[in-house]
Design brief:
Elements (H helix, E strand, L loop, with lengths): L6 E2 L18 H4 E3 L14 E8 L2 H5 L9 H9 L10 E9 L5 H17 L3 E6 L4 H12 L6 E6 L19 H12 L3 E8 L6 H9 L3 E4 H5 L3 H14 L2 E7 L21 H12 L4 E7 L10 H16 L7
Parallel strand pairs: 2-4, 3-4, 3-5, 5-10, 6-7, 6-9, 7-8, 9-10
Antiparallel strand pairs: 1-4
Helix pairs in contact: 3-11, 4-5, 5-6, 9-10, 10-11
Length: 330
Amino acid sequence: MSWESRYLPGDPLLWQRSSEPPSDTCFSHHMVPIDLMKQVPEKTTQTAFAFVGFKCDEGVQRDLGRTGAKEGPAAIRQRLARLPLQKTNIKLYDAGNVVCADHDLEASQASLAEVIKLLLDKNIHPLVLGGGHEMAFGHYQGIAKAYSPQKRLGIINFDAHFDLNRLHPSNRGSATTAFYQIAIAHEAEGRHFDYNCIGIQHVGNLRPAFDIAKEYNVKAILADDMHEGLREKCSDFADRVIDENDYIFISLSLDVFAPAFAPGVSSIQPLGLYPWHLIPLLRQLAISGKVVSYEIAEHVPRYDIDHRTAKLAATLLYEIIHHHEDHIRP
């Protein structure tokens, strides 16, 4: 089955506003919706981003979690359209969505991988909007297709959970197995595995998750460290990932935040982080010139309050785009 069978092109209506501000000032003015089946942008040396929705929460459903994250990509786009755009020397594309309507998560992940590779081959940075965190495995597969195994990939996951669970007895993946599957893929391909988590909570992970993390030498900054104000430790943590890797993949699950900031997520975390715990680190990583791809997972609009979670996700995308640098072209 080809990736096109699970692909829907970008929707211009999501970027329209009821009242337009002055032209050339907002994301809605600069976004170019494209259909990757008909129009693949030329390879560029200018900084470029493409939004890709992953309309799927099959992995969350397999974990018996609360579903609805498949509606997250549209909600985040609508909030981002309203934000100002200060940095205009970039290209912005809405590259549409990969969908999962038949419970075949594995096929949807494979389709996402092909879309990610297509964009990276054109030097366009994917910004994947979820969708459940199962999208991380498909996202990673696309990065692995685009770059040589000899290059060192650093993975940073802003999350309350490791998502390192072993596969279900049926050998099927889920939202909580994504990074375990990535670890296994690294082993199979002889890649260096450098998985780093920021915001991990003891109350959010069973004991075996910490055992698996130790087995795969996963490095972690606990939510406790961030609440206690250990900023230098966090900054040094990010610097190590930047210094020791050729390129970086950033995954961010919105359930890393406290429900006051992100009520619309798949798994509420009462002791979650505040946005300003993460924003300095996100800026530090984006400005490094080594981040090739980003994703934001686990927004469930039906549980949101006053669009808080969608607005937070849009603001994080704003931060990424306005601080991202391309010092090193992969």
